[in-house]
Amino acid sequence: MASKSGSKIYRRADLRRNPALGSWRPDADFSEHGFSGGAAWQSNGGAGRRHPARAYPLTLDAAIPEVEGRLNRVLVAGVFALYCGPEAEPSGALGASIRLMRSGDATQRIDLVQGRHYSDAKELGAVFRRVGDGTEIETAGQTDFDEETYRVDVLSFEVVDGLVPDRFILHDLGTPASFAIFDVVFEFEEIAVCPFRGMGQKVGLGDIGSIMRLADRVRFERALQQLSEGVMNSGDDLDEARGLVLTFQAAVTAGLLEMGGSRNTHRYLLDSARALDEQKDCSVIAEVAVESLRALTRDIFGDGRTGTQHLIDDALEYVERSFGEGINDAMVAERLGLSTSHFRHLFKQATRQPFHQYMLALRLEKSREMILQTDMGIAEISQMCGFASPAHFSRVFSGRFGAAPSVLRGADK
Protein backbone atom coordinates (compact mmCIF):
# COMPACT_ATOMS: atom_id res chain seq x y z
CA MET A 1 0.00 0.00 0.00
CA ALA A 2 1.39 3.43 -0.92
CA SER A 3 0.33 6.98 -0.28
CA LYS A 4 1.81 10.24 -1.54
CA SER A 5 2.15 13.69 -0.04
CA GLY A 6 3.69 16.19 -2.41
CA SER A 7 7.04 14.80 -3.55
CA LYS A 8 7.03 12.11 -0.84
CA ILE A 9 6.08 8.45 -1.24
CA TYR A 10 5.26 6.39 1.87
CA ARG A 11 5.44 2.60 1.91
CA ARG A 12 4.68 0.30 4.83
CA ALA A 13 6.71 -2.76 5.70
CA ASP A 14 4.96 -6.12 5.71
CA LEU A 15 5.11 -7.15 9.38
CA ARG A 16 4.37 -10.47 11.00
CA ARG A 17 1.70 -9.34 13.43
CA ASN A 18 0.20 -11.18 16.38
CA PRO A 19 -3.61 -10.76 16.25
CA ALA A 20 -3.82 -11.67 19.94
CA LEU A 21 -1.94 -8.51 20.90
CA GLY A 22 -3.22 -4.96 21.27
CA SER A 23 -3.99 -2.83 18.23
CA TRP A 24 -3.75 0.85 17.30
CA ARG A 25 -5.60 3.07 14.88
CA PRO A 26 -3.77 6.19 13.67
CA ASP A 27 -5.56 9.52 13.41
CA ALA A 28 -5.78 11.39 10.11
CA ASP A 29 -2.41 13.14 10.46
CA PHE A 30 -0.53 9.85 10.76
CA SER A 31 -2.68 8.03 8.20
CA GLU A 32 -1.50 10.57 5.62
CA HIS A 33 2.03 9.37 6.26
CA GLY A 34 1.24 5.76 5.40
CA PHE A 35 0.39 4.37 8.84
CA SER A 36 -2.53 1.95 9.02
CA GLY A 37 -2.18 0.49 12.50
CA GLY A 38 -3.74 -2.83 13.40
CA ALA A 39 -2.38 -5.61 15.56
CA ALA A 40 1.17 -5.37 16.86
CA TRP A 41 4.39 -7.31 16.58
CA GLN A 42 5.95 -7.55 20.06
CA SER A 43 9.52 -8.25 21.14
CA ASN A 44 10.92 -10.43 23.89
CA GLY A 45 11.02 -8.95 27.37
CA GLY A 46 14.13 -10.57 28.77
CA ALA A 47 15.10 -13.97 30.09
CA GLY A 48 13.10 -13.90 33.34
CA ARG A 49 10.76 -16.88 33.53
CA ARG A 50 7.92 -14.76 34.92
CA HIS A 51 8.25 -11.94 32.41
CA PRO A 52 4.95 -11.59 30.48
CA ALA A 53 6.80 -11.13 27.15
CA ARG A 54 9.43 -13.83 27.60
CA ALA A 55 8.04 -16.00 24.76
CA TYR A 56 8.09 -13.31 22.07
CA PRO A 57 10.80 -13.07 19.36
CA LEU A 58 13.92 -10.95 19.68
CA THR A 59 14.10 -9.77 16.08
CA LEU A 60 11.76 -8.02 13.67
CA ASP A 61 13.08 -8.39 10.11
CA ALA A 62 11.25 -6.64 7.28
CA ALA A 63 12.07 -6.01 3.62
CA ILE A 64 12.31 -2.39 2.48
CA PRO A 65 10.06 -1.94 -0.58
CA GLU A 66 11.65 -1.12 -3.92
CA VAL A 67 10.55 2.36 -4.98
CA GLU A 68 11.64 4.66 -7.80
CA GLY A 69 12.88 7.26 -5.36
CA ARG A 70 15.43 8.09 -2.69
CA LEU A 71 14.89 6.67 0.81
CA ASN A 72 14.93 9.69 3.14
CA ARG A 73 13.42 8.65 6.45
CA VAL A 74 12.18 5.67 8.48
CA LEU A 75 9.18 6.04 10.81
CA VAL A 76 8.32 3.37 13.39
CA ALA A 77 5.00 3.48 15.28
CA GLY A 78 4.81 1.48 18.48
CA VAL A 79 4.89 1.30 22.24
CA PHE A 80 8.38 2.39 23.39
CA ALA A 81 8.23 0.51 25.72
CA LEU A 82 6.31 -1.91 27.91
CA TYR A 83 7.66 -3.22 31.25
CA CYS A 84 10.49 -0.69 31.48
CA GLY A 85 9.54 1.35 34.53
CA PRO A 86 12.24 2.32 37.05
CA GLU A 87 11.58 -0.85 39.03
CA ALA A 88 12.40 -2.98 35.93
CA GLU A 89 15.50 -1.37 34.38
CA PRO A 90 17.73 1.65 34.98
CA SER A 91 17.92 4.78 32.88
CA GLY A 92 20.60 4.38 30.20
CA ALA A 93 19.88 0.71 29.58
CA LEU A 94 20.34 -0.38 25.97
CA GLY A 95 17.00 -1.98 25.08
CA ALA A 96 17.14 -2.57 21.33
CA SER A 97 18.87 -1.65 18.09
CA ILE A 98 17.51 -0.67 14.71
CA ARG A 99 19.66 -1.52 11.72
CA LEU A 100 19.29 -0.79 8.02
CA MET A 101 20.92 -3.57 6.04
CA ARG A 102 22.20 -4.02 2.51
CA SER A 103 23.08 -7.51 1.26
CA GLY A 104 23.47 -8.72 4.84
CA ASP A 105 25.72 -5.87 6.01
CA ALA A 106 24.63 -3.07 8.35
CA THR A 107 24.63 0.34 6.67
CA GLN A 108 23.14 2.39 9.52
CA ARG A 109 22.42 1.62 13.18
CA ILE A 110 20.35 3.35 15.85
CA ASP A 111 20.65 2.07 19.45
CA LEU A 112 17.52 2.59 21.57
CA VAL A 113 18.49 3.84 25.02
CA GLN A 114 16.22 3.98 28.08
CA GLY A 115 15.45 7.60 28.93
CA ARG A 116 16.39 8.89 25.47
CA HIS A 117 14.57 6.85 22.84
CA TYR A 118 12.07 5.13 25.09
CA SER A 119 10.56 5.34 28.55
CA ASP A 120 7.73 3.84 30.58
CA ALA A 121 4.80 3.96 28.14
CA LYS A 122 2.31 3.78 31.02
CA GLU A 123 2.98 7.50 31.38
CA LEU A 124 0.31 8.76 28.99
CA GLY A 125 1.35 12.40 28.67
CA ALA A 126 2.25 13.35 25.09
CA VAL A 127 5.96 13.61 24.34
CA PHE A 128 8.00 15.19 21.58
CA ARG A 129 11.77 15.14 21.72
CA ARG A 130 14.80 15.11 19.49
CA VAL A 131 17.73 12.89 20.36
CA GLY A 132 21.33 13.75 19.55
CA ASP A 133 21.69 10.88 17.07
CA GLY A 134 19.05 12.42 14.78
CA THR A 135 15.99 10.49 15.94
CA GLU A 136 12.69 12.13 16.86
CA ILE A 137 9.97 10.74 19.14
CA GLU A 138 6.39 12.01 18.87
CA THR A 139 3.27 10.68 20.60
CA ALA A 140 0.68 9.29 18.19
CA GLY A 141 -2.09 7.97 20.46
CA GLN A 142 -2.80 5.17 22.91
CA THR A 143 -3.40 1.42 22.93
CA ASP A 144 -4.46 -1.29 25.39
CA PHE A 145 -2.33 -4.31 26.28
CA ASP A 146 -3.49 -6.80 28.93
CA GLU A 147 -6.10 -4.36 30.23
CA GLU A 148 -3.45 -1.65 30.65
CA THR A 149 -3.32 1.56 28.58
CA TYR A 150 -0.02 2.57 27.01
CA ARG A 151 1.26 5.52 25.01
CA VAL A 152 1.94 4.99 21.29
CA ASP A 153 4.87 6.96 19.85
CA VAL A 154 6.37 7.38 16.40
CA LEU A 155 10.15 7.12 16.39
CA SER A 156 11.71 8.48 13.18
CA PHE A 157 15.20 9.08 11.83
CA GLU A 158 16.85 10.31 8.65
CA VAL A 159 18.58 7.77 6.41
CA VAL A 160 22.22 8.59 5.71
CA ASP A 161 22.46 10.19 2.28
CA GLY A 162 23.40 7.76 -0.47
CA LEU A 163 22.42 4.56 1.37
CA VAL A 164 20.21 2.10 -0.47
CA PRO A 165 19.31 -0.49 2.20
CA ASP A 166 17.08 -3.46 1.47
CA ARG A 167 16.07 -4.61 4.98
CA PHE A 168 14.93 -3.10 8.26
CA ILE A 169 15.80 -4.97 11.45
CA LEU A 170 14.78 -4.20 15.03
CA HIS A 171 16.61 -6.42 17.51
CA ASP A 172 15.65 -6.62 21.18
CA LEU A 173 18.84 -6.74 23.26
CA GLY A 174 17.35 -8.70 26.15
CA THR A 175 16.51 -6.09 28.79
CA PRO A 176 13.09 -6.22 30.50
CA ALA A 177 11.78 -3.61 28.03
CA SER A 178 9.45 -5.04 25.38
CA PHE A 179 8.69 -3.13 22.17
CA ALA A 180 5.32 -3.40 20.43
CA ILE A 181 5.50 -2.29 16.78
CA PHE A 182 2.38 -1.43 14.78
CA ASP A 183 3.89 0.00 11.60
CA VAL A 184 7.25 0.62 9.97
CA VAL A 185 6.92 3.24 7.23
CA PHE A 186 9.60 4.25 4.72
CA GLU A 187 9.55 7.78 3.32
CA PHE A 188 10.98 8.13 -0.18
CA GLU A 189 11.61 11.28 -2.14
CA GLU A 190 9.82 10.93 -5.44
CA ILE A 191 12.11 11.37 -8.42
CA ALA A 192 11.28 11.95 -12.04
CA VAL A 193 11.48 8.68 -13.94
CA CYS A 194 10.94 7.64 -17.50
CA PRO A 195 7.23 6.72 -17.96
CA PHE A 196 8.32 3.84 -20.19
CA ARG A 197 10.02 2.25 -17.14
CA GLY A 198 6.63 1.55 -15.56
CA MET A 199 5.43 -0.74 -18.36
CA GLY A 200 6.44 -4.14 -17.00
CA GLN A 201 10.19 -4.91 -17.10
CA LYS A 202 11.46 -1.64 -15.55
CA VAL A 203 13.73 -0.68 -18.45
CA GLY A 204 13.87 3.07 -19.10
CA LEU A 205 14.41 4.71 -22.46
CA GLY A 206 17.60 6.19 -21.02
CA ASP A 207 18.89 2.62 -20.52
CA ILE A 208 18.73 1.76 -24.22
CA GLY A 209 22.05 3.39 -25.13
CA SER A 210 23.82 1.46 -22.36
CA ILE A 211 22.12 -1.79 -23.44
CA MET A 212 23.30 -1.26 -27.01
CA ARG A 213 26.88 -0.42 -26.02
CA LEU A 214 27.06 -3.50 -23.79
CA ALA A 215 25.35 -5.75 -26.36
CA ASP A 216 23.16 -6.86 -23.45
CA ARG A 217 20.71 -9.14 -25.23
CA VAL A 218 18.95 -10.15 -22.01
CA ARG A 219 17.92 -6.61 -21.11
CA PHE A 220 17.10 -5.80 -24.72
CA GLU A 221 14.66 -8.70 -24.82
CA ARG A 222 13.13 -7.42 -21.58
CA ALA A 223 12.76 -4.00 -23.18
CA LEU A 224 11.05 -5.55 -26.21
CA GLN A 225 8.68 -7.43 -23.91
CA GLN A 226 7.98 -4.21 -22.05
CA LEU A 227 7.31 -2.43 -25.36
CA SER A 228 4.89 -5.17 -26.42
CA GLU A 229 3.05 -5.01 -23.06
CA GLY A 230 2.78 -1.24 -23.29
CA VAL A 231 1.36 -1.39 -26.82
CA MET A 232 -1.14 -4.09 -25.86
CA ASN A 233 -2.26 -1.99 -22.87
CA SER A 234 -3.04 0.94 -25.18
CA GLY A 235 -6.51 -0.51 -25.72
CA ASP A 236 -8.12 0.95 -28.81
CA ASP A 237 -5.88 4.02 -28.90
CA LEU A 238 -3.85 3.27 -32.03
CA ASP A 239 -2.10 6.65 -31.97
CA GLU A 240 -0.81 5.95 -28.44
CA ALA A 241 0.43 2.53 -29.53
CA ARG A 242 2.18 3.92 -32.62
CA GLY A 243 3.70 6.78 -30.62
CA LEU A 244 5.08 4.37 -28.01
CA VAL A 245 6.69 2.23 -30.70
CA LEU A 246 8.21 5.19 -32.53
CA THR A 247 9.59 6.63 -29.29
CA PHE A 248 11.28 3.32 -28.46
CA GLN A 249 12.57 2.93 -32.01
CA ALA A 250 14.03 6.44 -31.87
CA ALA A 251 16.01 5.48 -28.73
CA VAL A 252 17.33 2.35 -30.47
CA THR A 253 18.32 4.17 -33.66
CA ALA A 254 20.04 6.88 -31.59
CA GLY A 255 22.08 4.16 -29.90
CA LEU A 256 22.97 2.60 -33.24
CA LEU A 257 24.05 5.92 -34.70
CA GLU A 258 26.16 6.67 -31.64
CA MET A 259 27.92 3.35 -32.22
CA GLY A 260 28.62 4.24 -35.85
CA GLY A 261 25.53 2.78 -37.53
CA SER A 262 25.04 3.21 -41.26
CA ARG A 263 23.13 6.10 -42.82
CA ASN A 264 20.33 3.65 -43.64
CA THR A 265 19.46 3.78 -39.94
CA HIS A 266 18.04 7.28 -40.50
CA ARG A 267 15.53 5.90 -42.99
CA TYR A 268 14.37 3.16 -40.61
CA LEU A 269 12.14 5.49 -38.58
CA LEU A 270 10.47 6.92 -41.67
CA ASP A 271 9.78 3.47 -43.10
CA SER A 272 8.56 2.25 -39.71
CA ALA A 273 6.16 5.19 -39.31
CA ARG A 274 4.63 4.39 -42.70
CA ALA A 275 4.30 0.70 -41.87
CA LEU A 276 2.73 1.38 -38.48
CA ASP A 277 0.22 3.77 -40.01
CA GLU A 278 -1.16 0.89 -42.07
CA GLN A 279 -1.86 -1.29 -39.02
CA LYS A 280 -5.28 -1.10 -37.36
CA ASP A 281 -4.80 -3.48 -34.43
CA CYS A 282 -2.57 -3.06 -31.36
CA SER A 283 -1.53 -6.71 -31.30
CA VAL A 284 -0.32 -6.45 -34.90
CA ILE A 285 1.50 -3.17 -34.12
CA ALA A 286 3.32 -4.87 -31.24
CA GLU A 287 4.26 -7.88 -33.39
CA VAL A 288 5.50 -5.76 -36.30
CA ALA A 289 7.49 -3.47 -34.01
CA VAL A 290 9.28 -6.28 -32.13
CA GLU A 291 10.07 -8.14 -35.35
CA SER A 292 11.51 -5.05 -37.05
CA LEU A 293 13.59 -4.11 -34.00
CA ARG A 294 15.12 -7.57 -33.81
CA ALA A 295 16.01 -7.31 -37.49
CA LEU A 296 17.48 -3.83 -36.99
CA THR A 297 19.74 -4.96 -34.12
CA ARG A 298 20.73 -8.38 -35.47
CA ASP A 299 24.35 -7.30 -35.97
CA ILE A 300 24.57 -6.47 -32.25
CA PHE A 301 22.46 -9.16 -30.59
CA GLY A 302 22.60 -11.99 -33.12
CA ASP A 303 19.73 -14.09 -34.39
CA GLY A 304 18.39 -15.26 -31.01
CA ARG A 305 18.96 -17.98 -28.42
CA THR A 306 21.41 -20.75 -29.17
CA GLY A 307 21.51 -24.04 -27.31
CA THR A 308 23.71 -22.49 -24.63
CA GLN A 309 22.27 -18.97 -24.70
CA HIS A 310 20.31 -19.60 -21.51
CA LEU A 311 23.62 -20.03 -19.68
CA ILE A 312 24.88 -16.68 -20.95
CA ASP A 313 21.55 -15.11 -20.04
CA ASP A 314 21.96 -16.45 -16.48
CA ALA A 315 25.52 -15.09 -16.39
CA LEU A 316 24.42 -11.65 -17.58
CA GLU A 317 21.64 -11.49 -15.01
CA TYR A 318 24.11 -12.46 -12.27
CA VAL A 319 26.72 -9.84 -13.18
CA GLU A 320 23.96 -7.22 -13.53
CA ARG A 321 23.13 -7.81 -9.84
CA SER A 322 26.73 -8.22 -8.65
CA PHE A 323 28.77 -5.83 -10.79
CA GLY A 324 30.15 -4.00 -7.74
CA GLU A 325 31.60 -7.16 -6.20
CA GLY A 326 34.96 -8.71 -6.99
CA ILE A 327 33.63 -11.32 -9.39
CA ASN A 328 35.61 -12.79 -12.28
CA ASP A 329 34.98 -15.23 -15.12
CA ALA A 330 36.18 -18.23 -13.08
CA MET A 331 33.61 -17.51 -10.37
CA VAL A 332 30.77 -17.13 -12.87
CA ALA A 333 31.83 -20.28 -14.73
CA GLU A 334 31.77 -22.26 -11.47
CA ARG A 335 28.32 -20.87 -10.68
CA LEU A 336 27.08 -22.15 -14.08
CA GLY A 337 28.83 -25.52 -13.77
CA LEU A 338 31.20 -24.83 -16.67
CA SER A 339 34.96 -24.85 -17.01
CA THR A 340 36.47 -21.37 -17.12
CA SER A 341 37.81 -21.85 -20.67
CA HIS A 342 34.44 -23.10 -21.96
CA PHE A 343 32.61 -20.22 -20.32
CA ARG A 344 35.06 -17.70 -21.77
CA HIS A 345 34.45 -19.13 -25.25
CA LEU A 346 30.64 -19.10 -24.90
CA PHE A 347 30.60 -15.63 -23.41
CA LYS A 348 32.74 -14.08 -26.15
CA GLN A 349 30.71 -15.89 -28.80
CA ALA A 350 27.45 -14.49 -27.38
CA THR A 351 28.55 -10.94 -26.50
CA ARG A 352 31.41 -10.48 -29.00
CA GLN A 353 33.78 -9.38 -26.25
CA PRO A 354 35.81 -11.05 -23.48
CA PHE A 355 34.27 -11.25 -20.02
CA HIS A 356 36.70 -8.77 -18.43
CA GLN A 357 35.94 -6.16 -21.11
CA TYR A 358 32.22 -6.62 -20.60
CA MET A 359 32.58 -6.22 -16.81
CA LEU A 360 34.61 -3.04 -17.21
CA ALA A 361 32.06 -1.60 -19.65
CA LEU A 362 29.17 -2.54 -17.32
CA ARG A 363 30.82 -0.93 -14.29
CA LEU A 364 31.50 2.23 -16.28
CA GLU A 365 27.90 2.40 -17.48
CA LYS A 366 26.60 1.94 -13.92
CA SER A 367 28.97 4.56 -12.55
CA ARG A 368 27.86 7.01 -15.24
CA GLU A 369 24.23 6.48 -14.18
CA MET A 370 25.12 7.12 -10.53
CA ILE A 371 27.05 10.29 -11.37
CA LEU A 372 24.13 11.71 -13.34
CA GLN A 373 21.30 10.49 -11.12
CA THR A 374 22.63 10.69 -7.52
CA ASP A 375 24.56 13.04 -5.26
CA MET A 376 27.01 10.37 -4.08
CA GLY A 377 30.68 11.32 -4.05
CA ILE A 378 32.91 10.21 -6.91
CA ALA A 379 35.12 8.12 -4.61
CA GLU A 380 32.06 6.36 -3.16
CA ILE A 381 30.72 5.59 -6.64
CA SER A 382 34.13 4.26 -7.63
CA GLN A 383 34.11 1.86 -4.67
CA MET A 384 30.48 0.79 -5.16
CA CYS A 385 31.14 -0.05 -8.81
CA GLY A 386 34.11 -2.25 -8.01
CA PHE A 387 37.08 -0.09 -9.11
CA ALA A 388 40.43 -0.51 -7.38
CA SER A 389 40.89 3.21 -6.68
CA PRO A 390 39.35 6.60 -7.56
CA ALA A 391 42.40 7.40 -9.69
CA HIS A 392 42.02 4.23 -11.75
CA PHE A 393 38.29 4.88 -12.04
CA SER A 394 38.83 8.43 -13.29
CA ARG A 395 41.38 7.29 -15.86
CA VAL A 396 39.26 4.52 -17.44
CA PHE A 397 36.08 6.61 -17.19
CA SER A 398 37.73 9.44 -19.12
CA GLY A 399 38.93 6.99 -21.75
CA ARG A 400 35.41 5.59 -22.17
CA PHE A 401 33.33 8.76 -22.13
CA GLY A 402 35.82 11.47 -23.10
CA ALA A 403 35.48 13.37 -19.82
CA ALA A 404 36.45 12.84 -16.18
CA PRO A 405 33.66 11.89 -13.74
CA SER A 406 33.81 15.30 -12.04
CA VAL A 407 33.54 17.05 -15.41
CA LEU A 408 30.50 14.98 -16.41
CA ARG A 409 28.75 15.81 -13.13
CA GLY A 410 29.56 19.50 -13.49
CA ALA A 411 28.23 19.57 -17.06
CA ASP A 412 24.96 18.01 -15.90
CA LYS A 413 24.21 20.85 -13.48
Report on this model:
The structure is a single chain. This protein is an alpha+beta fold. Helix content is 39%, strand content 23%. It folds into 3 domains: 2-190, Jelly Rolls (Sandwich); 195-301, no CATH class; 321-412, Arc Repressor Mutant, subunit A. It has helices at residues 28-31, 208-214, 217-232, 238-258, 264-277, 282-296, 298-301, 309-322, 329-336, 340-351, 355-373, 378-384, 390-401, 405-412; strands at 2-5, 8-12, 23-24, 38-39, 41-42, 59-63, 69-82, 94-102, 105-113, 128-130, 136-145, 148-158, 167-172, 178-190. The strands form 3 sheets. Strands 1, 2, 5, 7, 10, 11, 12 and 14 form an 8-stranded antiparallel β-sheet that branches. A 4-stranded antiparallel β-sheet has the order 6-13-8-9, with no helix packed on it. Helix 2 packs across helix 4, helix 4 (238-258) runs antiparallel to helix 5 (264-277) and helix 5 (264-277) packs antiparallel against helix 6. Residues 1-6 have low confidence and may be disordered.
Shape: elongated
Q: Given the structure, what is the number of helices?
A: 14
Structural Rg: 27 Å
Main pleated sheet = 8 strands, antiparallel
CATH architecture of the largest domain: Sandwich
CATH class of the largest domain: Mainly Beta
DSSP, total strands: 14
